[in-house]
Amino acid sequence: MNKTTLQNPQYQTCIDACNTCAESCEACCTTCMCDMKNVAMMTRCMMMTRDCAMMCMMASTCMSRGSEYAKKMCMMCADMCEACAMECEKHSMMEQCKQCAEACRMCAKECRMMMN
């Protein structure tokens, strides 16, 4: 089995955090959409998680290819992840929202470290 060499291995921890966060946000959004009796209450959560997932994927892609805008994308990603975490924490009685908030906090932390 061949080992893949990454273009920018120094970004790998942040790339992994962004990918994990994107997955968690997508799962959270799906869970919220399926909760038919509370779907109206979960509208902002669903919108935030969709935006956050997209931002995380974009940041991950920029870091993977060594974009000159990777750090700027990470700064924006950190801001969006923190906002998403705050929204998901309002619904922490739902396990998927709780897990999403944790993934968002971790991703924001890793993205902020990219600024150093």
Beta percentage is: under 5%
CATH topology: Substrate Binding Domain Of Dnak, Chain:A, Domain 2
Distance between the termini: 35 Å
Largest sheet: none
Strand count = 0
Please state the average pLDDT score.
91
CATH architecture: Up-down Bundle
Assign an overall shape.
Answer: elongated
State the helical fraction. Answer: over 70%
Low-confidence stretches: none
* Overall tally of domains: 1
CATH class type: Mainly Alpha
Strand and helix order = HHHH
| Structural class estimated from helices and strands | mainly alpha
Calculate Rg over CA atoms: 15 Å
Task: Enumerate how many helices there are, as a single number.
Answer: 4
Short account of what is shown:
This protein has helices at residues 12-34, 43-65, 70-89, 95-113.
Textual characterization of the structure:
With 116 residues, this protein is mainly α. It has one domain (10-113): Substrate Binding Domain Of Dnak, Chain:A, Domain 2 (Up-down Bundle), CATH 1.20.1270. 73% of the residues lie in helices and 0% in strands. It has four helices and no strands. The longest helix has 23 residues, at 12-34. The chain is elongated and about 45 Å long. The mean pLDDT is 91.
